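Format notes (please read before filing issues)

Several people have asked whether sequences and structure tokens are stored in separate files. They are not. Every record keeps both together, in the order shown below: the sequence lines, then the token lines. Line labels are part of the format and must not be stripped during preprocessing.
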Amino acid sequence: MNPLRPVARDAAAPPGRQPFTARAAVLMVLVGVFAFSAFVVLSTYAPDLKAGRDGRSHALSKSAVGFAGLVRLAEDSGVPVLVSRGKVRGPGGGLRVLTLEPGLDPDAVASTLDPDAFSGATLLVLPKWQVSPDPRRSGWVVRHGLIEEADLAPLLRPLRDRIGVTRRQGGGRATAAGEAARGLLDLGEVDTLQTISGSGWTPLLTNERGGWLLVQSASRPALFVLSDPDLLNNQGLRSPRRAGAAMTILDYLRAGGPVVFDVALNGFARSRGVLKLAFEPPFLAATLCALAAALLMGLHAAVRFGAPQTQGRALALGKTALADNSAALLRLAKREPAMAEPYADLTRQAVARAVGAPRSLNRGELDAMLDRLAVKAGHPAVASGLTAEASRVTGVAGLMTVARKLYDFRRGMSRECD
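Then the structure lines:
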């Protein structure tokens, strides 16, 4: 045996064998339909599925400057809490918390502060720290220092009344007192405590040095501003004392109502679109009906029509094509009734040859001879009668009737078609 002899390859698959079974083809179609449907649905609701783990200052963030801890603390304290991605509908009252951050559109902030947007009280939490996402840990942030006053000024512009920010350098323990404190609040260690001041505001919470921490607008009594976010954010709630102070502030402002953390201003608004309308009531029923109709149409087409037919030549060859083309020309010219008499002559000549009629007979003598033979053979039709009936044909229906009789006459007289 030659060791260098090439190994014979497997025989090719027999011709006509399908590469996939019917079951495999059906499974591939079902998987494709499911994958496409899932892609459309997830693409439609992708903005609403954001987890908010971007390290920014909002109620979905679990970073140091986020407020997810306050949401959890309020829920565990038995307070009705809602993280809203759009307009809040329902009974009035309660507290809406808006957390500002650098880069927000001042016009969007102004429209959010519109009294018609929310019927209860609104707490505006000012930002303090300049942060960026931590490249080593997802959802964490790296602090770069305090926010510049130039970046903070556009966020304060929609407040109408003038307001200024003052920061105490360094850290230290802080206390707060005032109407909102309901006594004395121990804020613990606060790094660079931020206070505010200005005209048109009523202080509700001040620190031991008289700096304003929580103020109420004199022109819009339902609007409140908190100067330092570290009193409510995640890094501030690590202190049990500050967590208790945060709940004291919320309880005072909500006045027994629910607390709504609005994240639409931070870019998590629930978007609207045509596809969402198709996937939500009341249009969901119409979408399901359309999908069911499409499925039934596909099943009906697959079962009824089966495999597609192979396409033939545009111009067929042979006698059949010639006969079909000739018939089409006659039909187009509407000359079918005129074919009755020539067909009767051809039938007479064929019968004459079959019975051995002399060629010297004229048409009348031939018809008489064929009539006698037809009567003798017991045939119901005679040649002269069929010839006369063929001359009176005026339509396609009459042509078909005479042609059938002539065919039966020829078969009965010559027996060549049996």
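For reference, the curators noted about this record: Residues 319-414 form one domain. The CA atoms of residues 57 and 171 lie 21 Å apart.
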